[in-house]
DNA sequence: TTAAATTATATCGTGTGCGACATATTTAGC
DNA sequence: GCTAAATATGTCGCACACGATATAATTTAA
């Protein structure tokens, strides 16, 4: 037991997490190219498809991202015509993000993405469940 | 069971993985600021502390990163004085990356990082083991 | 009731991380 | 020996993701 053992790459939990996250992005990108979305734009659209209308603050909390990441990203989604951005009349500090009909249409194309990815992961039901639980435990503590 | 269920954020495995990876980076950064390293530079230094000398290709494979990410990163580590970069005399295509004495010194300061992080994760031994195994299963398939 | 604190968002600069493409060097095939 | 393929690395442009800081709108409190 060396005093430097804790600094070995193979003894880290952070590193495989980081590497797997990168690997996932690489897997998704070719599929998402068909939708003209990046991965972060894709998970943003997931929220939009579900909620139809949200404000930026909700979006930040849901995606665990900061406004300085989302603000320019939302501009790009707007330019692509998938969302609209307006100000809340009651509280002009709030941005109201809404799904457009163009954005709604994209959903039809997107349904093909999750099954294509699932194949790649190659985990058992049990493993997937456990991984899911433990990741949310880390996120929420 | 809706046809769009597979597009719900809460049904994704990719999303919590991605979010946890981001969260880990945010946890590390304040600690790494004391070492004048970014997270990616830190894991690169982990390899250097262990191996002392590597070429860029090995580094790419070890870290699951591409040369277009590592090349400029290595330049920054060189500028900070933690590594040196030379060309292999036998095969001039190969870059030889070597730990400097300055880089070796940094290791002493870095030993404080892993214990500080471990507290944050708050997983049981068993959970950590399982997470570790499953992440490497994904990485290696 | 108005000045201070809080809240929601935007902007800036830095450093990844990637695909696409370019370059230099070595190896293989003939 | 000479050309073609393979290998290792570099460069470019784009899109995150962050901390730090700024700005505008609303709420609170003296």
In words, what does this structure look like?
Two copies of one chain form a homodimer. With 141 residues, chain A is mainly alpha-helical. Chain A contains seven helices and three strands. Chain A has a three-stranded antiparallel beta sheet. In chain A, a hairpin with a 7-residue loop joins strand 2 and strand 3 (95-99). In chain A, helix 1 runs antiparallel to helix 6 (113-121). The radius of gyration of chain A is 18 Å and the shape is globular. The first copy, chain A, starts with 13 loop residues before the first helix and ends with a helix. At the A-B interface, helix 1, helix 2, helix 6 and helix 7 of A face helix 1, helix 2, helix 6 and helix 7 of B. The structure holds a DNA duplex (30 and 30 nucleotides).
């Amino acid at each position: 037991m060396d005093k430097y053992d804790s600094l070995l790459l193979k003894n880290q939990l952070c590193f495989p997490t980081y590497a797997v996250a990168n690997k996932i992005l690489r897997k998704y990108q070719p599929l998402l190219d068909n939708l003209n979305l990046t991965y972060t734009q894709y998970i943003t659209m997931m929220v939009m498809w579900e909620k139809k209308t949200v404000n930026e603050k909700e979006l930040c909390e849901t995606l665990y991202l900061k406004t300085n990441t989302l603000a320019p990203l939302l501009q790009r989604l707007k330019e692509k015509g998938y969302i609209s951005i307006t100000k809340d009349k009651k509280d002009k500090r709030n941005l109201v993000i809404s799904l457009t009909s163009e954005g709604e249409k994209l959903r039809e194309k997107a349904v093909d993405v999750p099954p294509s990815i699932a194949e790649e992961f190659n985990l058992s039901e049990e493993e997937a469940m456990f991984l899911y639980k433990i990741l949310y435990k880390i996120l929420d503590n």
